[in-house]
Amino acid sequence: MPYQPRVIDDHLNRLFDGLPAVSIEGAKGVGKTATAERRAAATLALDASGTRLSVAAEPEIILTQPTPLLIDEWQLVPPVWDVVRRAVDQDRTPGRFLLTGSAMAPPEARIHSGAGRIVKLLMRPMTLPERGVCTPNVSLSELLTGNHADVSGQCDLKLPDYAEEILASGLPGIRQDPPALRGSMIESYIQEIADRDIPDLGAKIRRPQALIAWMSAYAAATATTTAYNQILDSATPGESDKPARATADVYRTLLERIWILDPLPAWIPVFNPLRRLAQAPKHHLADPAIAGRLLGATVDSLLRADGPHDTRREGTLLGALFESLTVLTVRVLAQPLEAKVFHLRTQRGEHEVDIIVERPDHKVLAIEVKLASAADNNDAKHLNWLQTQIGTELLDRVIINTGPFAYRQVDGTAVVPLGLLGV
Questions:
Q1: Contacts of 392 (CB under 8 A, 6+ apart)
Q2: How far apart are CA 61 and CA 57, in angstroms?
Protein backbone atom coordinates (compact mmCIF):
# COMPACT_ATOMS: atom_id res chain seq x y z
CA MET A 1 0.00 0.00 0.00
CA PRO A 2 1.60 3.34 -1.05
CA TYR A 3 2.25 5.73 1.81
CA GLN A 4 -0.64 8.11 2.28
CA PRO A 5 0.61 11.54 3.47
CA ARG A 6 -0.52 12.41 6.97
CA VAL A 7 -1.24 15.74 8.65
CA ILE A 8 1.43 14.91 11.22
CA ASP A 9 4.14 14.77 8.51
CA ASP A 10 4.83 18.51 8.24
CA HIS A 11 4.66 18.94 12.01
CA LEU A 12 7.11 16.05 12.51
CA ASN A 13 9.47 17.46 9.87
CA ARG A 14 9.58 20.84 11.61
CA LEU A 15 10.32 19.26 14.97
CA PHE A 16 12.86 16.74 13.72
CA ASP A 17 14.72 19.38 11.74
CA GLY A 18 15.35 21.33 14.93
CA LEU A 19 15.31 18.78 17.76
CA PRO A 20 17.43 15.69 18.52
CA ALA A 21 14.63 13.29 19.54
CA VAL A 22 10.90 12.92 18.86
CA SER A 23 8.57 10.23 20.17
CA ILE A 24 5.46 9.36 18.13
CA GLU A 25 2.80 7.79 20.32
CA GLY A 26 -0.62 6.39 19.59
CA ALA A 27 -2.82 3.32 19.36
CA LYS A 28 -1.53 0.26 17.57
CA GLY A 29 -2.11 0.38 13.84
CA VAL A 30 -2.44 4.16 13.36
CA GLY A 31 0.63 4.27 11.10
CA LYS A 32 3.41 5.40 13.44
CA THR A 33 6.07 3.06 12.07
CA ALA A 34 5.36 3.82 8.41
CA THR A 35 5.56 7.55 9.09
CA ALA A 36 8.74 7.29 11.15
CA GLU A 37 10.55 4.90 8.79
CA ARG A 38 10.46 7.49 6.02
CA ARG A 39 12.86 9.60 8.10
CA ALA A 40 15.12 6.86 9.51
CA ALA A 41 18.48 5.56 8.34
CA ALA A 42 18.16 2.49 10.59
CA THR A 43 15.42 0.78 12.60
CA LEU A 44 15.44 -1.26 15.80
CA ALA A 45 12.08 -3.07 15.94
CA LEU A 46 11.70 -4.03 19.58
CA ASP A 47 8.57 -6.07 18.88
CA ALA A 48 10.92 -8.60 17.20
CA SER A 49 11.99 -10.95 19.99
CA GLY A 50 15.65 -11.24 18.95
CA THR A 51 16.14 -7.49 18.69
CA ARG A 52 14.25 -6.92 21.93
CA LEU A 53 16.40 -9.40 23.88
CA SER A 54 19.63 -7.91 22.51
CA VAL A 55 18.63 -4.34 23.35
CA ALA A 56 17.28 -5.35 26.76
CA ALA A 57 20.63 -6.98 27.57
CA GLU A 58 22.58 -3.87 26.53
CA PRO A 59 20.37 -0.78 25.99
CA GLU A 60 23.43 1.35 25.09
CA ILE A 61 23.73 -0.65 21.88
CA ILE A 62 21.35 1.88 20.34
CA LEU A 63 24.22 4.42 20.42
CA THR A 64 26.19 2.31 17.93
CA GLN A 65 23.49 2.46 15.26
CA PRO A 66 23.33 4.86 12.28
CA THR A 67 21.22 7.96 12.72
CA PRO A 68 18.51 9.02 12.30
CA LEU A 69 17.63 5.91 14.32
CA LEU A 70 14.06 4.67 14.71
CA ILE A 71 13.43 2.74 17.94
CA ASP A 72 10.09 1.08 17.22
CA GLU A 73 7.86 0.11 20.18
CA TRP A 74 10.39 1.51 22.63
CA GLN A 75 8.12 0.83 25.63
CA LEU A 76 8.96 -2.89 25.33
CA VAL A 77 12.46 -2.05 26.62
CA PRO A 78 11.86 1.05 28.79
CA PRO A 79 15.54 1.66 29.66
CA VAL A 80 16.21 2.81 26.07
CA TRP A 81 14.24 5.99 26.86
CA ASP A 82 16.80 7.06 29.44
CA VAL A 83 19.66 6.09 27.12
CA VAL A 84 18.23 8.42 24.48
CA ARG A 85 17.66 11.14 27.07
CA ARG A 86 21.27 11.01 28.25
CA ALA A 87 22.55 10.92 24.66
CA VAL A 88 20.54 14.05 23.90
CA ASP A 89 21.99 15.77 26.97
CA GLN A 90 25.45 15.17 25.56
CA ASP A 91 24.71 16.00 21.91
CA ARG A 92 21.84 18.24 20.77
CA THR A 93 22.37 17.62 17.05
CA PRO A 94 18.90 17.68 15.44
CA GLY A 95 17.33 14.59 13.90
CA ARG A 96 19.12 11.82 15.83
CA PHE A 97 16.36 9.65 17.33
CA LEU A 98 12.79 8.77 16.49
CA LEU A 99 10.85 6.62 18.93
CA THR A 100 7.42 5.07 18.48
CA GLY A 101 5.22 3.58 21.17
CA SER A 102 1.83 1.87 21.20
CA ALA A 103 1.54 2.03 24.98
CA MET A 104 2.67 4.24 27.81
CA ALA A 105 5.59 2.85 29.76
CA PRO A 106 4.55 1.08 32.98
CA PRO A 107 4.82 3.15 36.17
CA GLU A 108 7.29 0.67 37.64
CA ALA A 109 9.72 1.43 34.79
CA ARG A 110 10.64 4.66 36.64
CA ILE A 111 11.91 6.38 33.50
CA HIS A 112 12.61 10.08 33.37
CA SER A 113 9.86 12.18 31.79
CA GLY A 114 12.18 13.28 29.01
CA ALA A 115 10.98 16.85 29.41
CA GLY A 116 13.20 19.20 27.47
CA ARG A 117 14.92 16.34 25.64
CA ILE A 118 12.31 14.18 23.88
CA VAL A 119 9.24 15.82 22.36
CA LYS A 120 6.10 13.67 22.20
CA LEU A 121 3.60 13.68 19.33
CA LEU A 122 0.30 11.82 19.49
CA MET A 123 -0.70 10.16 16.22
CA ARG A 124 -4.37 9.37 15.70
CA PRO A 125 -6.21 7.39 12.97
CA MET A 126 -6.60 8.91 9.53
CA THR A 127 -8.99 11.80 8.98
CA LEU A 128 -11.13 12.11 5.86
CA PRO A 129 -8.56 14.26 3.98
CA GLU A 130 -5.82 11.74 4.83
CA ARG A 131 -7.96 8.93 3.45
CA GLY A 132 -8.11 10.64 0.06
CA VAL A 133 -11.90 10.57 -0.20
CA CYS A 134 -12.26 14.34 -0.50
CA THR A 135 -10.26 17.49 -1.15
CA PRO A 136 -10.54 20.00 1.71
CA ASN A 137 -10.60 23.71 0.95
CA VAL A 138 -11.75 25.23 4.26
CA SER A 139 -8.76 25.78 6.51
CA LEU A 140 -8.94 25.30 10.28
CA SER A 141 -5.88 27.51 10.64
CA GLU A 142 -7.68 30.29 8.76
CA LEU A 143 -10.78 29.92 10.93
CA LEU A 144 -8.52 30.25 13.98
CA THR A 145 -7.24 33.63 12.81
CA GLY A 146 -10.58 35.23 13.63
CA ASN A 147 -10.58 37.09 10.31
CA HIS A 148 -14.00 35.69 9.33
CA ALA A 149 -12.77 35.02 5.81
CA ASP A 150 -15.21 33.77 3.20
CA VAL A 151 -15.71 30.02 3.13
CA SER A 152 -16.81 28.24 0.00
CA GLY A 153 -16.61 24.95 -1.81
CA GLN A 154 -18.65 21.91 -2.68
CA CYS A 155 -18.37 18.41 -1.20
CA ASP A 156 -19.52 15.32 -3.06
CA LEU A 157 -19.82 13.18 0.07
CA LYS A 158 -23.39 12.32 1.08
CA LEU A 159 -24.76 10.77 4.24
CA PRO A 160 -24.23 7.15 3.10
CA ASP A 161 -20.61 8.03 2.25
CA TYR A 162 -20.03 9.36 5.75
CA ALA A 163 -21.61 6.22 7.24
CA GLU A 164 -19.32 4.05 5.13
CA GLU A 165 -16.23 6.05 6.13
CA ILE A 166 -17.12 5.83 9.81
CA LEU A 167 -17.14 2.03 9.63
CA ALA A 168 -14.25 1.74 7.15
CA SER A 169 -11.80 2.83 9.89
CA GLY A 170 -8.93 5.28 9.92
CA LEU A 171 -6.38 2.55 10.63
CA PRO A 172 -4.28 2.25 7.44
CA GLY A 173 -3.76 -1.51 7.67
CA ILE A 174 -7.49 -2.15 7.91
CA ARG A 175 -8.38 0.30 5.15
CA GLN A 176 -6.25 -1.63 2.67
CA ASP A 177 -8.36 -4.77 3.22
CA PRO A 178 -11.38 -5.51 1.01
CA PRO A 179 -14.44 -3.64 2.35
CA ALA A 180 -16.27 -6.90 3.08
CA LEU A 181 -13.45 -7.99 5.42
CA ARG A 182 -12.85 -4.77 7.33
CA GLY A 183 -15.45 -5.54 9.98
CA SER A 184 -13.82 -8.86 10.76
CA MET A 185 -10.42 -7.18 10.95
CA ILE A 186 -11.72 -4.59 13.41
CA GLU A 187 -13.30 -7.35 15.49
CA SER A 188 -9.94 -9.14 15.54
CA TYR A 189 -8.27 -5.86 16.56
CA ILE A 190 -10.71 -5.54 19.47
CA GLN A 191 -10.15 -9.14 20.60
CA GLU A 192 -6.39 -8.62 20.40
CA ILE A 193 -6.71 -5.72 22.82
CA ALA A 194 -8.24 -8.02 25.44
CA ASP A 195 -6.15 -11.12 24.71
CA ARG A 196 -2.73 -9.59 24.17
CA ASP A 197 -2.34 -5.81 24.33
CA ILE A 198 -3.68 -5.42 27.87
CA PRO A 199 -1.81 -8.48 29.23
CA ASP A 200 1.35 -7.08 27.62
CA LEU A 201 1.00 -4.16 30.03
CA GLY A 202 1.42 -6.63 32.89
CA ALA A 203 -2.27 -6.59 33.77
CA LYS A 204 -4.20 -9.76 34.50
CA ILE A 205 -7.71 -9.67 33.04
CA ARG A 206 -9.72 -12.51 34.55
CA ARG A 207 -12.49 -12.29 31.98
CA PRO A 208 -11.44 -10.74 28.66
CA GLN A 209 -15.04 -10.72 27.46
CA ALA A 210 -16.01 -8.57 30.45
CA LEU A 211 -13.46 -6.01 29.27
CA ILE A 212 -14.97 -6.11 25.78
CA ALA A 213 -18.46 -5.73 27.28
CA TRP A 214 -17.25 -2.62 29.14
CA MET A 215 -15.77 -1.27 25.90
CA SER A 216 -19.13 -1.86 24.19
CA ALA A 217 -20.91 0.11 26.88
CA TYR A 218 -18.34 2.87 26.53
CA ALA A 219 -18.94 2.85 22.76
CA ALA A 220 -22.66 3.26 23.39
CA ALA A 221 -21.80 6.41 25.37
CA THR A 222 -19.84 7.92 22.45
CA ALA A 223 -20.12 11.73 22.31
CA THR A 224 -21.86 11.89 25.71
CA THR A 225 -20.74 12.68 29.25
CA THR A 226 -22.40 9.57 30.71
CA ALA A 227 -21.11 8.80 34.20
CA TYR A 228 -18.71 5.88 34.46
CA ASN A 229 -20.94 4.04 36.94
CA GLN A 230 -23.73 4.11 34.34
CA ILE A 231 -21.33 2.71 31.74
CA LEU A 232 -20.50 -0.13 34.15
CA ASP A 233 -24.18 -0.86 34.76
CA SER A 234 -24.81 -0.92 31.01
CA ALA A 235 -21.93 -3.31 30.50
CA THR A 236 -23.30 -5.90 32.90
CA PRO A 237 -27.13 -5.83 32.80
CA GLY A 238 -28.61 -8.48 35.05
CA GLU A 239 -25.28 -9.89 36.19
CA SER A 240 -24.95 -10.64 39.88
CA ASP A 241 -21.15 -10.94 39.71
CA LYS A 242 -20.53 -7.75 37.76
CA PRO A 243 -17.05 -6.25 38.01
CA ALA A 244 -16.48 -3.89 40.88
CA ARG A 245 -16.16 -0.19 40.21
CA ALA A 246 -12.45 -0.50 40.94
CA THR A 247 -12.13 -3.17 38.24
CA ALA A 248 -13.90 -0.95 35.72
CA ASP A 249 -11.55 1.88 36.66
CA VAL A 250 -8.63 -0.45 35.90
CA TYR A 251 -10.17 -1.19 32.48
CA ARG A 252 -10.37 2.52 31.77
CA THR A 253 -6.80 3.22 32.89
CA LEU A 254 -5.39 0.36 30.83
CA LEU A 255 -7.31 1.34 27.69
CA GLU A 256 -6.13 4.92 28.05
CA ARG A 257 -2.53 3.67 28.36
CA ILE A 258 -2.80 2.14 24.89
CA TRP A 259 -4.70 5.17 23.54
CA ILE A 260 -7.86 3.19 22.71
CA LEU A 261 -9.93 5.55 24.83
CA ASP A 262 -9.57 9.14 23.66
CA PRO A 263 -11.91 11.21 25.85
CA LEU A 264 -12.48 14.86 24.99
CA PRO A 265 -11.88 17.01 28.09
CA ALA A 266 -14.19 19.77 29.21
CA TRP A 267 -13.12 23.34 28.51
CA ILE A 268 -12.38 25.44 31.57
CA PRO A 269 -11.53 28.95 30.32
CA VAL A 270 -8.38 30.50 31.75
CA PHE A 271 -9.97 33.95 31.78
CA ASN A 272 -12.97 32.34 33.57
CA PRO A 273 -15.96 34.56 32.78
CA LEU A 274 -18.19 31.48 32.69
CA ARG A 275 -19.69 29.84 35.74
CA ARG A 276 -21.31 26.47 36.40
CA LEU A 277 -19.51 24.55 33.66
CA ALA A 278 -19.52 20.76 33.76
CA GLN A 279 -16.08 19.16 33.99
CA ALA A 280 -16.82 15.61 32.80
CA PRO A 281 -15.13 14.53 29.55
CA LYS A 282 -17.03 13.43 26.47
CA HIS A 283 -16.43 9.80 25.65
CA HIS A 284 -14.69 8.83 22.40
CA LEU A 285 -12.80 5.77 21.24
CA ALA A 286 -9.65 6.24 19.18
CA ASP A 287 -11.47 5.28 15.97
CA PRO A 288 -15.24 5.59 15.47
CA ALA A 289 -15.06 2.31 13.52
CA ILE A 290 -14.11 0.51 16.74
CA ALA A 291 -17.20 1.92 18.45
CA GLY A 292 -19.35 0.95 15.49
CA ARG A 293 -18.08 -2.63 15.47
CA LEU A 294 -18.48 -3.02 19.24
CA LEU A 295 -22.15 -2.07 18.80
CA GLY A 296 -22.71 -4.28 15.76
CA ALA A 297 -23.42 -1.35 13.44
CA THR A 298 -23.62 -1.66 9.68
CA VAL A 299 -24.06 1.05 7.09
CA ASP A 300 -27.69 0.00 6.63
CA SER A 301 -28.44 0.00 10.35
CA LEU A 302 -26.85 3.42 10.80
CA LEU A 303 -28.88 4.91 7.95
CA ARG A 304 -32.16 3.24 8.88
CA ALA A 305 -33.92 5.93 10.89
CA ASP A 306 -36.67 3.54 11.93
CA GLY A 307 -34.28 0.72 12.74
CA PRO A 308 -33.43 -0.60 16.20
CA HIS A 309 -31.79 1.87 18.55
CA ASP A 310 -29.34 1.13 21.33
CA THR A 311 -31.31 1.70 24.53
CA ARG A 312 -28.13 2.77 26.32
CA ARG A 313 -27.93 6.10 24.56
CA GLU A 314 -30.10 9.00 23.49
CA GLY A 315 -30.19 10.12 19.87
CA THR A 316 -29.02 8.17 16.88
CA LEU A 317 -25.84 6.16 16.84
CA LEU A 318 -24.94 7.64 13.45
CA GLY A 319 -25.13 11.13 14.93
CA ALA A 320 -22.79 10.17 17.77
CA LEU A 321 -20.30 8.46 15.46
CA PHE A 322 -20.37 11.38 13.02
CA GLU A 323 -19.54 13.70 15.92
CA SER A 324 -16.73 11.34 16.93
CA LEU A 325 -15.32 11.39 13.39
CA THR A 326 -15.50 15.19 13.46
CA VAL A 327 -13.70 15.34 16.82
CA LEU A 328 -10.99 13.04 15.45
CA THR A 329 -10.57 15.26 12.39
CA VAL A 330 -10.42 18.50 14.35
CA ARG A 331 -7.92 17.09 16.85
CA VAL A 332 -5.57 15.93 14.09
CA LEU A 333 -5.83 19.26 12.27
CA ALA A 334 -5.35 21.28 15.48
CA GLN A 335 -2.17 19.54 16.66
CA PRO A 336 0.29 21.15 14.21
CA LEU A 337 -1.31 24.51 15.01
CA GLU A 338 -0.48 23.95 18.70
CA ALA A 339 -4.18 24.34 19.50
CA LYS A 340 -6.03 22.30 22.13
CA VAL A 341 -9.46 20.74 21.69
CA PHE A 342 -12.25 20.53 24.28
CA HIS A 343 -16.02 20.48 24.63
CA LEU A 344 -18.26 22.82 26.63
CA ARG A 345 -21.33 21.95 28.65
CA THR A 346 -23.05 23.81 31.45
CA GLN A 347 -23.80 21.83 34.59
CA ARG A 348 -27.52 21.57 33.89
CA GLY A 349 -27.05 21.02 30.19
CA GLU A 350 -28.80 24.23 29.09
CA HIS A 351 -25.92 25.05 26.78
CA GLU A 352 -23.49 22.75 25.02
CA VAL A 353 -20.85 23.37 22.35
CA ASP A 354 -19.58 20.18 20.79
CA ILE A 355 -16.02 21.32 20.10
CA ILE A 356 -13.92 24.17 21.45
CA VAL A 357 -10.55 24.76 19.75
CA GLU A 358 -8.29 26.91 21.92
CA ARG A 359 -5.26 28.77 20.57
CA PRO A 360 -2.14 29.16 22.73
CA ASP A 361 -3.36 32.69 23.62
CA HIS A 362 -6.62 31.11 24.92
CA LYS A 363 -8.87 32.63 22.26
CA VAL A 364 -11.26 29.99 20.95
CA LEU A 365 -13.11 28.68 17.92
CA ALA A 366 -16.53 27.14 18.65
CA ILE A 367 -17.86 24.27 16.55
CA GLU A 368 -21.31 22.68 16.54
CA VAL A 369 -21.69 19.26 14.86
CA LYS A 370 -24.96 18.52 13.06
CA LEU A 371 -25.90 15.32 11.25
CA ALA A 372 -27.83 17.21 8.60
CA SER A 373 -27.37 18.34 5.03
CA ALA A 374 -28.62 21.87 5.73
CA ALA A 375 -28.22 24.35 8.57
CA ASP A 376 -30.79 26.70 10.04
CA ASN A 377 -30.56 29.56 12.51
CA ASN A 378 -31.48 27.32 15.43
CA ASP A 379 -28.34 25.24 14.88
CA ALA A 380 -26.17 28.16 15.97
CA LYS A 381 -28.05 29.03 19.18
CA HIS A 382 -25.38 27.65 21.54
CA LEU A 383 -22.63 29.26 19.48
CA ASN A 384 -24.46 32.58 19.68
CA TRP A 385 -24.91 32.15 23.44
CA LEU A 386 -21.17 31.65 23.82
CA GLN A 387 -20.56 34.80 21.78
CA THR A 388 -22.62 36.79 24.28
CA GLN A 389 -20.65 35.29 27.17
CA ILE A 390 -17.04 35.74 26.03
CA GLY A 391 -17.24 38.40 23.31
CA THR A 392 -13.99 38.93 21.40
CA GLU A 393 -12.40 35.88 22.99
CA LEU A 394 -14.50 33.89 20.50
CA LEU A 395 -12.69 33.89 17.17
CA ASP A 396 -15.38 32.34 14.98
CA ARG A 397 -18.46 30.11 14.98
CA VAL A 398 -18.73 27.01 12.80
CA ILE A 399 -21.38 24.41 12.06
CA ILE A 400 -19.99 21.12 10.71
CA ASN A 401 -22.55 19.08 8.78
CA THR A 402 -23.00 16.58 5.94
CA GLY A 403 -24.26 19.10 3.39
CA PRO A 404 -22.86 19.78 -0.07
CA PHE A 405 -21.77 23.44 0.31
CA ALA A 406 -19.54 25.58 2.53
CA TYR A 407 -20.74 29.14 3.12
CA ARG A 408 -21.46 31.74 5.78
CA GLN A 409 -24.94 32.35 7.11
CA VAL A 410 -26.33 35.87 7.32
CA ASP A 411 -25.25 36.07 10.98
CA GLY A 412 -21.66 35.20 10.00
CA THR A 413 -21.65 31.59 11.21
CA ALA A 414 -19.58 29.38 8.91
CA VAL A 415 -21.29 26.22 7.64
CA VAL A 416 -18.73 23.60 6.57
CA PRO A 417 -19.26 20.02 5.36
CA LEU A 418 -16.89 17.77 7.30
CA GLY A 419 -15.35 16.56 4.03
CA LEU A 420 -14.14 20.09 3.24
CA LEU A 421 -12.34 20.78 6.52
CA GLY A 422 -8.53 20.73 6.33
CA VAL A 423 -5.45 22.24 7.92
A1: none
A2: 9
Instruction: Give a three-class secondary structure readout of 227-251.
Output: CHHHHHHHHCCCCCCCCCHHHHHHH
Strands 414-417 and 407-408: antiparallel
Domain assignment of residue 371, given as a range:
126-423
Does residue 311 sit in the same domain as residue 369? yes
pLDDT tens-digit map of 349-372:
999 999 999 999 999 999 999 999
Does 3 reside within a domain? no
Asked if residue 278 belongs to a domain, the reply is: yes
Instruction: Evaluate the CA torsion angle 349, 352, 357, 359 in order and state its sign.
Output: negative
- What's the pLDDT tens digit per position in 98-145? 999 999 876 655 566 566 689 999 999 999 999 989 899 999 999 999
Q: Return the closest-CA partner of residue 218 out of 239, 197, 190, 184.
A: 190
Question: Where a domain ends, among 106, 122, 138?
Answer: 122
List residues bridging with 72 in a β-sheet. Answer: 45, 100
User: What residues have CB less than 8 Å from 396, skipping those under 6 apart?
Assistant: 143, 144, 146, 148, 365, 366, 414
Structural domain includes residue 284: yes
First to last CA, the chain: 24
Same structural domain for residues 98 and 148?
no
Task: Judge if pTM exceeds 0.90.
Answer: yes
Edge-first strand listing for the sheet containing 119-122: 42-45, 69-72, 97-101, 21-25, 119-122
If asked whether residues 152 and 173 sit together in one domain, one would say: yes
